[in-house]
Amino acid sequence: MLRLPVDVARALRRRAAAADVTIAEASRQLMQPKELERPLGLLEHVAWLHGRLVRRRDDLVAVFEDAGADPKAVDRVIDVLADLLKEWPDEEGRDYDFVVHGMGQPQ
């Protein structure tokens, strides 16, 4: 689990309140590429996030080092997402809709 800086957490709370969505949905909206015509599915989002982390790896490592956090966590997350993508079940026609209990319905 990552601990967000106070200003980031505050911004997420403001965005969630303004849009009348959960904090999780507000953060998801911020992570989505802006040029999409439709929201990403779960697998698409994992692939997009993995690609983004790989591209920004050096910047992320520098942020972790500056904060005194373990920079190896960045590589662990990248590796875990790569494993998830590799192991994802290939079931044509199957739609994966997930609801996190206690977080409300997807918007």
Question: What's the structural blueprint in terms of helices and strands?
Answer:
Blueprint: H1 6-19, H2 23-31, H3 42-55, H4 57-66, H5 72-87
Helix pairs in contact: 1-2, 3-5
What does this structure look like?
The chain is an all-alpha fold and about 110 residues long. The protein folds into two domains: about 1-30; about 35-90. It has five helices and no strands. It has helices at about 5-20, 25-30, 40-55, 55-65, 70-85. The model is unreliable at about 95-105 (pLDDT under 50).
Q: Briefly, what is this?
A:
The chain is mostly helical.
What keywords describe this structure?
flat; single chain; mainly alpha; disordered C terminus; 107 residues; 59% helix
Low-confidence stretches: 97-107
Please give the alpha-carbon distance between the first and last residues: 24 Å
Structural class: mainly alpha
Largest sheet: none
Please compute the radius of gyration using only Cα atoms: 16 Å
**Topology as a string of helices (H) and strands (E):** HHHHH
Number of helices: 5
> What number of structural domains do the residues give?
2
Count of individual beta strands? 0
Structural shape: flat
Q: Average pLDDT across residues?
A: 76
Helix content: 55-70%
Which percent band covers the strand fraction? Answer: under 5%
